[in-house]
Amino acid sequence: MSTIDSTSSIKIAVIGGGIAGLTCATRLKQLGLQTVTVFDTGKHTVGGRCSSRTELVKGVSMTFDHSVQYFTVSDERFQKIVNYLVRDGAARVWNGPIGILQNGKFSAERSPKKAFIGTNGMRSVAQSIAKFCQVQQPVWIGSIQFNDIVQKWSVDRWGLFDYVVIAHNGKCAARLVENAGVPEIHRLCLTRFSSQLSSKENRMTLCSLFVLMVAFERPLGLPYQGAHVQHENLSWVANNTEKLKSDRPQSQSRADQYECWTIISSKTLGEQNKVPQEHIPPNVASRISHLMLQSFADATGMKEKLPDVCFRKLQLWGAGVPINKFSGGTECVFDAAHKIGICSDWLVSPCVQGAAISGLALAETIVQHINGNKSSTPLQPHFNPATSPSAIGDFP
Ligand SMILES: Cc1cc2nc3c(=O)[nH]c(=O)nc-3n(C[C@H](O)[C@H](O)[C@H](O)COP(=O)(O)OP(=O)(O)OC[C@H]3O[C@@H](n4cnc5c(N)ncnc54)[C@H](O)[C@@H]3O)c2cc1C
Known about the structure:
The relative contact order is 0.19. It is globular and about 70 Å long. α4 packs antiparallel against α5 (183-189). The protein is built from nine helices and 23 strands. By secondary structure, the chain is of the alpha/beta class. It has helices at residues 19-30, 76-87, 123-130, 171-178, 183-189, 240-243, 267-272, 282-300, 352-370, and strands at 11-15, 35-39, 52-57, 60-65, 91-94, 98-102, 105-108, 115-118, 134-136, 144-147, 152-155, 160-161, 163-166, 191-193, 204-216, 226-230, 234-239, 259-265, 309-322, 324-326, 333-335, 340-342, 383-385. Helix content is 24%, strand content 29%. Residues 15-21, 39-42, 48-50, 67-71, 139-141, 167-168, 172, 176, 209, 211, 264, 317, 320-321, 344-345, 350-352, 354-355, 392-393 line the site of flavin-adenine dinucleotide. Residues 374-396 are annotated as: Disordered. InterPro entries: FAD/NAD-bd_sf. Pfam families: NAD_binding_8 (PF13450).
C-alpha cells in the first residue's frame, strides 16, 4: 500500500470512536494522512461498545466490563494490533477458566481459543488505540451534508472535510445520512431491532441486550471466571473481581472483599422488554434486575445460597450485537463519488476483531481512492446471518 505525502492537507472526519473508528483513524495516520479527526459521544472515554465502568461499591472503586467481555484473534492483521496492545500493557491473555454453563453445571471449553482482555477493563484496549488519534469528545455529530460544488463534506459546526467515515450503526447512523445526499449509504444504514432475522426485510439487524452489574457481599466461590450461559434469560456471566485481580494495584486490595459480576441477558429478554436505553423506567429496571438475578442463581446452581447484593445497576444496549452481516464481499463500504465510507462490526463479524478489520479496510480503501482508484464497493443492502452461537458476538 503506497502512503500519502505527509504534507497532504486532506481532512477526514471519522464519526464514532469505537474500535472500528479508532482503528480506521490510526491506519489513515500510518498511511500518511495527518488531519484525521475522530468524533465520539463518549463522556468519559472512547470505545463505544468496547468499554468498562468504574462504580463505587461501599466506597471501593470496582471495574465492570459492561459490553465486550473478551476477544479472540484469527486474522493476521488483527494479530498485529493485539501484539501492539499487549506490548503497550493494554491487553493480556485471560486464562479464565471460561466455558459453558448449563443447568448449574460448568464445562470448560474443549479446545479453548486464546482469550484476550483489557488490563484495566476493556476500556484500556480502546484507549490504547486512541493514543494515535485526534479525538473530539464528547461530541455528537447531528448533521453532515455533501457539497457538490466544492466536493467536500460539511460536518456540523466542525467545518469542511474531504472524506467522511461513518463508524457507528443503528438508528443514529441512518438518521445522520438520511438527508445527506447519499441514498445508497442511507439504505445500507437502515436497521431492524430484533432477536430474529426476518425473511421479508433484508436489513442489518441488531439484537438488544440487558447488562446487570452486580456486587455481592462476599465471594461466591464458583470455579470459573466467565461462562456462556444456556438459559432462556441469560447469555453470559463473568466475575470481574477475579478476572481483573492480577492487574489491580496492591493499594486496591479492598476490592477483593466483594465480588463483582457482569450478567448479560439473552436476546429474547432484551427484545421482549425493550425500553429507551437512556431512561429505563425504574419499575422495568427493578423487574428485569430481579429476574436476571434469579436466573443467575438458577444458572450457577446458587439458588438459596447467593450472598446479599450490595450494588446493582442495569444497562440496556438497545443496538447491542448484529445478528447478520453485510454480504457484499468487502470488509467496508465506500461510495467513491461522495467520498464517504462505513466501517463497523456488521461489515465483517460482530466482534472486536470484525470491527478492527473493517476499520483497517476502510482506511486502505480511502488511500486507494486518493491515489486514483475511483471505484465504489458494492452498495446493495444484502445480508447473511451471523454465524456466532453466542448472543454477545463472535469469537473467531
Ligand atoms: C453487551 C455486549 C457484549 C459484547 N461482548 C463481546 C465480546 O465479549 N467479544 C467481542 O468481540 N465482542 C463483543 N461485543 C460486540 C462488540 O462490542 C462490537 O462488535 C464492537 O465493539 C463494535 O465496535 P464498532 O466500532 O463497530 O461500534 P461501536 O463500539 O458501537 O462504536 C460506535 C461509536 O460511535 C459513537 N457514535 C454514534 N453516533 C455518533 C454520532 N452521531 N456522533 C459521534 N459519535 C457517535 C458511539 O457512541 C460509539 O462510541 C459485545 C457487544 C455488546 C453490546
